[in-house]
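Researcher: Let's walk through a ligand-bound prediction step by step. First, I give you the protein sequence. Second, the SMILES string for zinc ion. Third, you return the three-dimensional complex as structure tokens. Ready?
Model: Ready.
Researcher: Here are steps one and two:
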Amino acid sequence: MPLPAGPPPNSFCYVIEDAAGDVHLIDPGSDLDSNWALLAGALHAVGSSVDRVASITATHLHPDHLGLAERVRAASGARVLMHAAEQETLDWVVAHGPIVPDYRAWGVPADQLDTLIGIASHRHTAALTADALIADGDVLPIPGREIRVLHTPGHTAGHVVLRDVESALIFTGDHVLPEIFPGIGLGGQTPDPLGDYVDSLARVELFDDHEVCPGHGHRFLGLAQRCAQSRAHQLSRSDEVARILTAAPDASVWEVAKQVSWTDGWEGLRSFRLAAALAQTHMRISFIRGHDTMGV
Ligand SMILES: [Zn+2]
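Model: Step three, the predicted complex:
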């Protein structure tokens, strides 16, 4: 399912047929007319239709995963399922509006301010109330299948990974991705999203014999190895930020971010990716300086 703009590329909507011939979706994708048509066509191609969708489970609240859920629910009567922490964050953002970072205090140069503030202000979250909340250890209500919920906070506070026990498939959402490393602390207010993320990697890497169905990229084998790479990436980047801060304790978020060895280089970061890089840097600085982080 294409995203309206910016990386990462297309998200995956997974379709699971149950014993009664109904279908269940994991992460329906971004709310675009073209995606609606794409989903209807894909369901038709497998001999089903939108009105056969019985449940929609969101791995997390981001619009490229959850966006289309309300439309599918309206057309099908499907039940929407998500973790309680995601519902809490959605409700908070709907009540208070998007969090626009204090980019001036972060040391962002004047010529970049408008673009970045624009991106943060337009990050729109639609109101959505789940029909049921899911928690760690639950089995999804999919007749004939045993799909278990693993609570994996880190990317967001209520992120879940879903494991199809018999098929040995694991739906990792944005927790573990084959081509990129996910941002951390991008939903919900928790004191230590990075610590949560590392703990959550330890929970899923046990299922190394499973085929990974991630939220973006491609299906892959080698979950434990990818978890190890994800952990190493996050920890080494935190170490890097800590080293930069040791040399320049009063550096602004912008000054620190400029010195981080970004995969595509600092100069290559623009608009959405620049905003994400600054948010990740801010999260690490706050953690190192002993403050709580807040990112939605
Ligand atoms: Zn996400």
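Researcher: And what stands out?
Model: The longest helix spans residues 223-247. The beta strands are 14-17, 23-26, 53-57, 79-83, 132-134, 147-151, 160-164, 169-173, 211-214.
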